[in-house]
Write a structure and sequence with these properties.
This protein is α/β, with parallel strands linked by helices and 140 residues long. It is 26% helix and 28% strand. A 7-stranded mixed β-sheet has the order 1-7-6-2-5-4-3, covered by helices on one side. The protein binds adenosine-5'-diphosphate and magnesium ion.
Length: 140
Amino acid sequence: MERIISLNREETFKTGEKIGEKLSQGSVVCLFGPLGSGKTLLTKGIAEALDISDEITSPTFTLISTYHGKCDFYHIDLYRIENEEELHDLGLTEVLYGDGISVVEWAEKLGSLLPPESVKINLKILPEDQREILLEGIDI
Ligand SMILES: Nc1ncnc2c1ncn2[C@@H]1O[C@H](COP(=O)(O)OP(=O)(O)O)[C@@H](O)[C@H]1O
Ligand SMILES: [Mg+2]
């Protein structure tokens, strides 16, 4: 497990870029951490490394956004998911077990759909805009 302290938003974005450089087709990145901890910002860094030219916006209302760069890229935000039924209606299995790269915000809501091989990243808000970023399943 690797522990990074990010001092500002740029460092979190750059951490995302480094993560993105290490991913390959089929990778799933599970993000954990409270609102405002930097999950979407980290995702923007990952997308940058994957040559996604479209702007990454928070998919809070759409739940899944699809982008195309070096490979298909899926940005999933489960914040609004309230139960297993809603989760299963999303049809995530194909996405998570397909050839693209997926990033999942609020990944704890995946429950049994959470792929065992996934990269797990925990973000924590520290004082003075700092963030603790714990990486599991990836070396950057
Ligand atoms: N070190 C930091 N890392 C990440 N975000 C930071 C940092 N310092 C301040 N911020 C701010 O915190 C917010 C993080 O928002 P966002 O990435 O949308 O979080 P989440 O998706 O986890 O809700 C942004 O407004 C960002 O500018
Ligand atoms: Mg977010």
